[in-house]
Amino acid sequence: MRAGRGAPAIAVLGCYGAVGRSVVRRLREAGTGPLRLGGRDLDRVRALAGTGSGGPAGAEAATGGAATGEAVTGTAGAGAVEARAGADEAVAVDLRDAAALAAFCEGCHVVVNCAGPSSRILDTVARAALAAGAHYVDVAGDAAVRDRLTAAGLPTGSAARRDPAGHGSDGPGSGDHGSDGPESAGRGSDGPGSGDHGFDGPGSAGRGSTGHGSEGRGSRGRGRAGRDGSGRVVVLSAGMMPGLSALLPRHLAGQGFDRVDRLTAHVGGVDRFTPAAALDYVASLSGGYATPLAVWRGHQVIPRASRPRRGVELPHFPGRVNAYPYLSAEAERLARSLGFAEVEWSSVFDGELTLAALARLHDLDADTAAGELVRTSRLEAFGRTPYFQMVFRMEGEAAGRPVARTLVARAADSYELSAAVAVLAAGAVLRGLVRPGLHDAADVLDAGAVFQALLDDPAVTRLEVVDDVSPAVEVEEGVL
Ligand SMILES: NC(=O)c1ccc[n+]([C@@H]2O[C@H](COP(=O)([O-])OP(=O)(O)OC[C@H]3O[C@@H](n4cnc5c(N)ncnc54)[C@H](OP(=O)(O)O)[C@@H]3O)[C@@H](O)[C@H]2O)c1
């Protein structure tokens, strides 16, 4: 086991997956200093860390920081850490190997979990991180992970949401959170580790929910954290959906609405499934994550109130697309917290192949079904320019008049968006902006700051809020 002293502040597990690669790149761009990178295939980890593949552990220079050529650590085998002081560390770790996972987490300040599928990993990495005294950020991790961690005694931190300036960007209806009281600290100075790492960029996206918690101040605080999880921060759902899919509507609700009544969300495009994302998608179909064809109406869930639509023109989507309505647990929470009377949410498939594959999935076991999704989504994207788009149209009232606004966010793929949110969450945690306990990213990140960060993000090809005076135009052609 390594001591915390000298270990990188951030460990990234699943570093060479689609989200992991982008997280690593973004963390480097944010100036985090050396990272600890982990995955099952050491050659792939080494390639990412820049440690090469031929030599003994730690013998190669890494690229993540200013290598000083000192302090080679670890021995051969799973969990062994390859590093030079000031450089990225490469670690072979299979998360099913408890000892290797514990060694991977040891000494780091925040473990960012990009390994998947989340539906199978559940709280395995979170528990190892907490046991090592580290904070934890999960690009996935929804209700099932939350329930397990809660059952294990980790306090939920949702009541700690607040904005120290007293005017968050959440807009109307967001007054259900924000009651920390006068002990609440200002942004960015109290938390563990703040100031002991060169993390200049995304940390400002935190909502500033630092409390005095159970930690000491400054970087020495991490040594005093309980290995039972006390004093630790867990941020789940720090990805595109769930995650950004709640943050962007929260931001929009703050754009000149006195009251919000109705939200229509269209989310999708031409996006390939990775193996882990496909397995999670398949797992989500069998319950818990969302209610297919449901809408939120009259402040409650109405099952089977909608229907799939084929060949429709949706505002801001190119050509005709297919829309599949559902209400996720996250959308329901959003509806409750912002006070919407109506929410209609649809996945958008720009193409026929993936949709057709989805219709066949129920006959297949999970691994075969996921493989089919990966294959067909790649086929669908072949010869086309993939894109992923989120369109939120919000209706409400301002100064006694009806208002409608639309937020459009577009990127080359959804994995970049997930990585962006995960890095913003890691930054907020590192800066001590998140109170100890269990949170969803959408509850602790400042929606306005996330929007601003995405405006400067090269992976985001469109991001804007547009006034929308005419009703959404949909030309319906048929029903699935
Ligand atoms: N919130 C969101 O919107 C969102 C969006 C995208 C993805 N996600 C989630 O993020 C996670 C990663 O997605 P992804 O698209 O990056 O998937 P991916 O490209 O398939 O990568 C998954 C990664 O997990 C690693 N992994 C799998 N089993 C492992 C094990 N036993 N030990 C160590 N590493 C292991 C894989 O390594 P090997 O290749 O060696 O197996 C790979 O590096 C998934 O749970 C996915 O659902 C969430």
TrEMBL record:
Residues 188-213 have a biased composition (Gly residues). It comes from the Bacteria. Residues 155-229 are annotated as: Disordered. Gene3D superfamilies: NAD(P)-binding Rossmann-like Domain. Residues 10-141 form the Saccharopine dehydrogenase NADP binding domain. This is SDR superfamily protein. The gene is SidSR-18.
